[in-house]
Write a structure and sequence with these properties.
Elements lengths: L14 E4 L2 H4 L7 H4 L4 E4 L17 E2 L2 E2 L2 E2 L3 E2 L2 E5 L6 E2 L6 H4 L7 E9 L2 E5 L7 E4 L11 H6 L2 H4 L4 E8 L6 E5 L11 E2 L2 E3 L6 H13 L1 E2 L5 E13 L10 E12 L5 E2 L1
Parallel strand pairs: 2-13, 7-10, 11-17, 12-18
Antiparallel strand pairs: 1-2, 3-6, 4-5, 7-8, 9-10, 9-11, 12-15, 13-14, 16-19, 17-18
Pfam families: NUDIX (PF00293)
Function: Acts as a decapping enzyme capable of hydrolyzing monomethylated capped RNAs (in vitro). Hydrolyzes monomethylated capped RNA after alpha and beta phosphates to form N(7)-methyl-GDP. Shows low activity towards unmethylated capped RNA.
InterPro entries: NAD-cap_RNA_hydrolase_NudC (IPR050241), NUDIX_hydrolase-like_dom_sf (IPR015797), NUDIX_hydrolase_dom (IPR000086), Nudt17_dom (IPR033716)
C-alpha cells in the first residue's frame, strides 16, 4: 500500500492526520462511530474529490461530468430486496431496507447480498455469508409520517434506492484515508468521508471503489494488489434528519476494507 509503516507517501501539502474520527464525522448521520475506531490519515482535497454525482436526475440514468467533460448517460445501480425466496423486487424510495428485514423497530440486521445483472440484491437466507446492515436511530424514513411521505416530489419517489461504495484504504500502521467533500456540494457538503461513490453499470463493487479512489485522490491500485473485505452496509438518507427537510436521496452504502499486498501505491 503506502511505503514503510508511516504515511510518508501522503505527507505533502494538503494532507492531514486525524486523531478523532467521531468528532470529524459526527455530521455524517452517525455512520463512522460504528465502523471506524482507528487513527486516520486523510487528504484534504479542496475540490472534494471532483464532481458532484447527482445532477437532480429523475430516473435510473444520470448525466454526470467526469474529469471536466460530459459523458454518456450513466445507469444507476439500484437496490432490490428478496424475502422468503420470492423474486427480487426493486426497493422503493420511501421504504426502509433495514425495516424490510426486521420487525420495523430494530436498527441493525444481518443480510446477504449479491450483485447480478446490474441488480444489487439484499436477502436473508441460509446460503452465503451474512453482513450487518445498519441505520441510525434517527433514520428519517423510519419516522416518516404518511403526510410527509406524500409531500415528497414524485420524481424523487421514483428514484429507488441507490448503491454506493466506500473504500477504507488502510495503511500498514492502521491509518485510513479520508477525503473532504467540497462545501459547494448539495449532499453532505464539507464532510470528511472515505473515498467512494455510486456503483455504475457492469462494475463489481471493488472496481467501483478503485475507480472512485483514482478519480477523487489520484491514487491507483490494481485489483490484484488488494485484499478487499466487506465490513457492512449502511442505509443512508439525505438530509440525515427530518428536522433538516424531507428525504432527497436514499442509499445503501457498501463499506469495504482494503489491505494492499504491495508496498507502493502509484499516484497520478
Amino acid at each position: 500500500m503506502f511505503s514503510n509503516t508511516d504515511c510518508s507517501d501522503l505527507h505533502r501539502p494538503g494532507v492531514r492526520c486525524v486523531q478523532c474520527v467521531r468528532h470529524l464525522l459526527s455530521s455524517h448521520d452517525g455512520l463512522h462511530s460504528v465502523l471506524l475506531r482507528r487513527r486516520f490519515c486523510g487528504f484534504r482535497l479542496s475540490g472534494g474529490g471532483g464532481e458532484e454525482r447527482d445532477l437532480n436526475p429523475a430516473g435510473p440514468t444520470d448525466w454526470r461530468p467526469v474529469g471536466g467533460r460530459i459523458m454518456d448517460k450513466v445507469r444507476r445501480i439500484l437496490v432490490y430486496v428478496c424475502k422468503d425466496r420470492a423474486a427480487p423486487q426493486r426497493a422503493q424510495f420511501v421504504q426502509s431496507i433495514t425495516s424490510h428485514f426486521t420487525d420495523g423497530s430494530d436498527d441493525e440486521v444481518e443480510v446477504s447480498c449479491s450483485l447480478d445483472k446490474n441488480q444489487f440484491v439484499l436477502y436473508r437466507g441460509d446460503e452465503g455469508p451474512r453482513i450487518p446492515l445498519k441505520r441510525p436511530a434517527f433514520f428519517p424514513i423510519k419516522h416518516l409520517s404518511v403526510t410527509e411521505a406524500a409531500a415528497i416530489p414524485l420524481d424523487i419517489q421514483k428514484r429507488g434506492v441507490d448503491v454506493g461504495v466506500a473504500l477504507l484504504l488502510q495503511t500498514t500502521n492502521q491509518r485510513v484515508l479520508l477525503t473532504r467533500r467540497a462545501k459547494e456540494l448539495r449532499i453532505f457538503p464539507n464532510v470528511w468521508v472515505p473515498p467512494g461513490g455510486h456503483l455504475e453499470s457492469d462494475e463489481t463493487l471493488l472496481e467501483a471503489g478503485l475507480r472512485e479512489l483514482k478519480e477523487e485522490t489520484g491514487l491507483k491500485l490494481e485489483p490484484e494488489d488488494v485484499s478487499p473485505k466487506v465490513l457492512g452496509l449502511w442505509e443512508s438518507v439525505f438530509p440525515p434528519m427530518l428536522s433538516r427537510g424531507l428525504p432527497q436521496r436514499h442509499h445503501v452504502v457498501v463499506y469495504m476494507l482494503l489491505h494492499s499486498s504491495s508496498h507502493t501505491c502509484s499516484y497520478r
